[in-house]
Write a structure and sequence with these properties.
This protein is of the alpha+beta class. The protein has one domain. Helices cover 15% and strands 35% of the residues. Residues 6-20 have low confidence and may be disordered.
């Protein structure tokens, strides 16, 4: 197959993004403490109300509980793309994830910015302020995520009690210190900085080894942009979205993305 020359730079950039974050050897992220807080922000570069929410999420890089009690992820939705600025981080599947939440939580509609913490709506009508959610006291089990040197992911979860339903493993690759010069739309003329923005996402069922032990081998999780992932977050959830356990951490030191 002959690839048009005009596409070669983009393909090369995507391959570089995939190889840059790969560890020299397998890396393991593990959490067996009380369930952390998965903070999901639903956002868009085409929404003028979103930059303050993104800035609040960005400041969590300096939170003492990051990767212990706090696990931030920012999903960009695509339903504002038609207003003049197509968000390069937005994906239809992220919009559908938010719509699924809206249906489960009996919301009348989706909106941005929206925060969802551990599968529940948080701070509706958020206007640029807010304190961190309370720490979760329950200890639900141990989640271990392996980032293999060849780009594959695998995970295991040992539950403290027998789950009532099938379990789902979610993995998000996150961009750190990435920015966009917005040329059109509601944020025209702004330079928007993003931390914890989702570059790639995978959701797959976990296979039961027995009534309390589960595993998943989703394979590689691909970045949808040329930006190199700087962190990864994985969580186990019930089909209704309830988060059972979260783990994750840096794939490269903060600031390394900007120095390349």
């Amino acid at each position: 197959m002959n690839i048009p020359r005009k596409f070669l730079p983009a393909i090369g950039a995507c391959l570089l993004a995939m190889t840059t974050f790969l560890p020299a050897q397998d890396r393991v992220f593990k959490n067996s403490a009380a369930t952390g807080n998965l903070i999901e922000l639903y956002s868009s570069e085409g929404c003028s109300s979103c930059p303050p929410a993104e800035a609040w999420l960005n400041h969590l890089q300096n939170a003492p509980g990051l990767w212990k009690d706090i696990f931030p992820v920012a999903f960009h939705v695509d339903y504002w793309d038609g207003l003049g600025w197509p968000d390069r981080f937005a994906r239809p599947e992220y919009t559908q994830r938010q719509r699924d939440y809206a249906a489960r939580l009996n919301q009348e509609s989706v909106y941005t910015p929206e925060f969802v913490v551990n599968g529940r709506e948080w701070h509706r009508g958020w206007l640029g302020g807010g304190t961190l959610p309370p720490e979760t006291a329950a200890k639900t089990g141990e989640l271990a995520l392996i980032v293999h040197a060849d780009g594959r992911f695998s995970a295991s979860y040992r539950s403290a009690a027998s789950p009532a339903q099938a379990l789902i493993l979610n993995i998000a690759l996150l961009g750190l210190n990435v920015s966009t010069d917005v040329k059109r739309g509601e944020n025209s003329g702004e330079k928007l900085k993003h931390d914890f923005v989702v570059l790639g996402f995978s959701s797959s069922p976990m296979q039961a080894r027995n009534d309390k032990s589960f595993q998943a081998d989703p394979g590689p999780v691909k970045s949808s942009t040329s930006d190199a992932p700087g962190a990864v977050v994985a969580w186990v959830s019930d089909p209704d979205g309830t988060v059972l356990q979260v783990t994750g951490g840096w794939l490269m030191p903060p600031g390394a993305e900007a120095s390349r």
